[in-house]
Design goal:
Blueprint lengths: L2 E7 L6 E7 L7 E11 L1 H7 L16 E9 L11 E5 L8 E5 L4 E2 L6 H6 L1 H14 L7 E4 L5 H12 L3 E6 L4 H7 L2 E4 L4 H8 L4 E6 L3 H8 L2 E9 L17 H15 L7 E4 L6 H15 L7 E6 L3 H8 L7 E5 L1
Parallel strand pairs: 8-9, 8-11, 9-10, 11-12, 12-13, 14-15
Antiparallel strand pairs: 1-2, 3-4, 3-6, 3-15, 4-5, 5-7
Helix pairs in contact: 3-4, 3-9, 7-8
């Protein structure tokens, strides 16, 4: 008999509760994972407020990612998987001491990578890698701007861009500028005049901007692009608590993207491109995670962790996501 401790968001805005139950045997094609660590993502904050496009119904258990060991498997799953260390992009359900996950979603985790580090790089690592190498295709000699350079995705984006040979400008609060410099980027205070500072540092414009803030910031990012540059939106953090339909906060951003693309088709964009990225928990994401784990294992990618909290403090972790957390990722430990 396996007792499960899990976090449940009972209704929009909370409360965030700790509950316990007995785990059922895993269904066919699934595995029961004893969770070592789970990541805390801004998507979890959106879901708490009911503003995520793929919003789950309340009540639900958050947790976009997890790392742990396989303890039991259902029918059709090889018994050799039991005892293996794995990671999964779960979207929801990761904030548990034991979690049932489809076996096809599991990715092996190198033993050299600690559980909190591995959990911190699942969602953020896939996102950053795909943004840098598959969407923007950063190359040597370029100059890129990373908004939120001290955050979970931002710290990884900075390193991936630098590893590709690019110059990196990164926005962050003044208190986090030393950490951004240590990563190798040139910090810009997001509370100041970001546009003026970027134009001062890169008079000819930047080749890529990674922007997770929303429509208004996306427009400013577009105007900072050099010829043939690209701006990639990958969220709308500024609207996480916007009331109303869960799609409404994203409509202005998507409108910007479509408008700029239309300008490109009409030949009025000077070669500049507009893109929006949304992660998909598919085979391509799992292959990307394998590559990211190898970068971490080999020391080519460091994964800053802002804080490790017990699973039962998940509510506090969600609040920290919106009130200036530390550098890197917040991780929950069951």
């Amino acid at each position: 008999m396996t007792r499960v401790r899990e976090i449940v968001v009972a209704a929009k805005g909370g409360p965030v509760e700790v509950r316990e139950r007995i785990a059922a045997a895993p269904a066919a094609g699934s595995a029961l994972i004893e969770v070592e660590a789970s990541g805390v993502a801004f998507a979890d904050v959106h879901m708490l407020h009911g503003t995520y496009p793929a919003q789950p119904k309340f009540p639900f258990t958050p947790g976009y990612e997890l790392v742990g060991k396989v303890r039991q498997v259902g029918d059709g799953v090889p018994a050799q998987l039991v005892g293996r260390r794995v990671a999964a992009l779960t979207v929801t359900g990761g904030w548990r001491s034991f979690a049932e996950v489809p076996a096809k979603s599991l990715v092996p985790v190198p033993e050299e990578i600690a559980g909190p580090v591995a959990a911190a790089v699942v969602l953020n690592g896939i996102t950053a890698y795909q943004l840098a190498h598959q969407v923007a295709k950063i190359s040597a000699g370029q100059t890129v701007l990373v908004h939120g350079a001290s955050g979970g995705v931002g710290t990884l984006l900075v390193q991936l861009a630098l590893n590709a040979g690019a110059r990196v400008l990164g926005t962050a609060s003044a208190a986090k500028h030393p950490a951004v410099r240590e990563l190798g980027a040139e910090p810009i205070d997001y509370r100041g005049d970001v546009v003026a500072r970027v134009r001062e540092l890169a008079p000819g414009g930047v080749d890529a901007v990674f922007d997770h803030l929303g429509a208004d910031s996306y427009a400013r990012s577009w105007n900072l692009l050099a010829r043939n540059g690209i701006v990639v939106g990958y969220g709308s953090a500024s609207t996480y608590d916007r009331p109303g339909n869960r799609f409404l906060p994203y409509l202005p951003l998507l409108g910007r993207v479509l408008g700029y693309r239309l300008r490109g088709l009409l030949g009025a964009a000077n070669g500049r491109r507009a893109s929006f990225y949304g992660i998909r928990p598919d085979m391509k994401a799992r292959a990307t995670l394998v590559a990211v784990f190898e970068l971490v294992r080999s020391g080519q990618l460091e994964v800053p962790i802002a804080e490790q909290l017990p699973l039962v403090e998940a509510g506090a972790a969600l609040k920290k996501m919106t009130t200036g957390r530390g550098v890197g990722k917040i991780v929950l430990i069951p």
